[in-house]
Amino acid sequence: MPGTSGRVLVVDDSEVIRQLIRVNLELEGFEVVTAADGAECLEIVRRVAPDVVTLDVMMPRLDGLRTAARLRAAADTRRLPIAIVSACTPADLDRGASVGVDGYLAKPFDPADLVALVRRLITVGESGPPRGYAYGFGATGGATGGVAGGGTTAGGGWRTDSALGEHGPIGEGYP
């Protein structure tokens, strides 16, 4: 689609969430392709050649973290920017970091944070690896989640992980 900001593959088992993400990204000029679970994502990712993939964690057939691991394992999708858009547990976040997920946005989310995350990941994808920042938690002005690559910190070197309700000095726990 000419004049688009990039192509995003949105993977979520909830049709309502897929449509919500689609509408918000399309309003910002992105082309959006959707899949209902990780298995469908793997079936279509090479055909649609997205610039970014967003994944829910809890999905039937193949969950988001196993999907991310398979995308990282394949040579042709190894460098594809991946964001988790989900309500995750701390263990899910650790697993996401271990498989190379590039960003995280907590549900429910502010649409502006979603757009900012996708734009950042497209920019990172264009500059190529190494990405080396797996997660950059912290609200981006709202109170809904983290954006890859260093959201904001809350006062004097403290980070706020609004997705988990935690806060503390930068460098302790999550970056």
Key traits:
175 residues, alpha/beta, Rossmann fold, five-stranded parallel sheet, two-stranded antiparallel sheet, 19% strand, globular, disordered C terminus, phosphoprotein, Bact_response_regulator
What does the model show?
With 175 residues, the chain is α/β, with parallel strands linked by helices. The protein has one domain: Response regulator (Rossmann fold). It has five helices and seven strands. It has helices at residues 15-27, 38-48, 64-73, 90-99, 111-127, and strands at 6-11, 30-35, 52-55, 82-86, 103-106, 158-161, 166-169. Helix 2 (38-48) runs parallel beside helix 3. The protein is globular, with a radius of gyration of 15 Å. Residues 129-175 have low confidence and may be disordered. Residues 7-122 form the Response regulatory domain.
Structure summarized in a few sentences:
Keywords: Phosphoprotein. This protein is of the alpha/beta class. It is 35% helix and 19% strand.
What is the CATH third-level topology name?
A: Rossmann fold
With strands numbered from the N-terminus, the spatial order across the biggest sheet is: 2-1-3-4-5
Question: Based on helices, strands and strand pairing, what is the structural class?
Answer: alpha/beta
CATH class: Alpha Beta
From the spread of the alpha carbons, the general shape counts as globular
Cα separation of the termini: 37 Å
**SSE succession:** EHEHEHEHEHEE
Number of strands: 7
Estimate the helix proportion, in percent.
25-40%
List unreliable stretches of 5+ residues: 129-175
